[in-house]
Amino acid sequence: MEVDSKKLQQLYIAYFGRPADPSGLRYWLSKAKNGLTLREVAKNLSSQNEYNNALMYRKDLDIQINKLYLNLYSRKPDFAGLTYWIGAIESGIHDISDIACDLIWVSLNLNQTNTEQALRDQKTLKNKVESAELFTNELISTTNGVSLYKPSSVNPWVSGHALSVGVDFISKVTFEKSYDLSEVKEIIQSIIQFSPSKINNPVIEMEDLSLLVPIFTNNKKFTKMIANKITVPFTGGGLKINNNQTNIEALCNLNVTFGKGERVALIGHNGSGKSTFLKLISGIYSLSSGKMKISVDVYPMLQKSFLTSNELSGIDAAKAHYLLVNRNLNGFNEYLKEIVDFSGLGDYISLPIKTYSDGMSARLIFSLLTSCEHDCLAIDEGFGTGDSEFFERAEKRLKSFIDAAGTLFLASHSEELLRQFCTRGIVFNHGSIVYDGLLDEALNYYHASDYYENV
Length: 455
Hints:
Layout: H1 5-16, H2 22-33, H3 38-45, H4 49-54, H5 61-73, H6 79-90, H7 96-108, H8 116-141, H9 145-148, H10 160-171, H11 181-193, E1 202-215, H12 220-229, E2 239-242, E3 245-259, E4 263-267, H13 274-281, E5 289-294, E6 298-301, H14 314-326, H15 332-343, H16 358-369, E7 376-380, H17 388-403, E8 407-411, H18 415-421, E9 424-429, E10 432-438, H19 439-454
Parallel strand pairs: 4-8, 4-9, 6-7, 7-8
Antiparallel strand pairs: 1-3, 1-5, 2-3, 9-10
Helix pairs in contact: 1-3, 1-5, 1-8, 3-7, 5-6, 8-11, 14-15, 15-16
């Protein structure tokens, strides 16, 4: 098939789920004049970081095929289609870069004998391409639209606001819905007018930061077995072996800055690196390479149990925590009275913690941790509040506690909780930041990737 702007738009939609950027179109059209084929363009696009990033670097064939169909036709492939393409790739007849070209060819060569679904697919793709062309042309006509329609970072790849708008734009085009020029102009203006607040007062800065967690063993045979046999992802990234030392790459190549007063949601599957990140900024872990500058005291609330010994009485635990925060005991008696009243422990405060129920221990810990205001909080959702009778009181106190914080980092799977307290979203995958932007956009990015895996 001849390479032209419409077919390039189709490939960008297939692999990236967005309209082509003007510079990309110009580049591929110039290459086509020198003999580059559409399949060669598709092969290149399907190997780019943007495509792999959108898949969260998962290479399962069903996920990749689902993504192509959803991007092109706003639907999943039927079982027969999915089985056919998987078989064709596994047998070596095709690879993933061929599928988009073949689907595009089929859509261009339909006749009246084709099924109703095929005709709907053709119309859907036509609507997407026409909308994408309007989008790209409008970018070209604006003063700075072209310069803004680019990723936030290339290495590592972070899509950012503008490209995410493009993905959202194309995802809303269907068999029945396309965009007119006035709508496109409004969307392009939203990209131009969006200006992420400049971080004039950064409190945490990371540059090329990585964190390796060593697996200590003197058994070289065991080390080699771990490196060669275990393929299930660990917390954060994968395994690295060097001179018979095996490490888990918990965080990888982080380049990010956070300003004073930001409310940051940490999003990702279990094991993606969220909790490791919180422990790093809290000073529990140290970086392995790169640079990190922290100009604020980060207060960690990362687990349900932080007490050094359950032999301590509740009073001793409160005293230890008060000394840790204030470095003296001035005002401790008033502090202790407030802890006892809020936790509802009464005379149990004088007994060893080992005599407490789980609910009583959680109430004491929650009361202690939320008893003072802090400039920066690092909160993991595993942090608990205790029994149900205490929950309502604890929820009000937690909200007041978080609202009073200068800067917040919150790791949670609860969108309701994240939307209540956060405005910026960071998506982690295998120890890397794969998306950084407004919270709603970050959640959309996370769910889109998750959807491709589960459909």
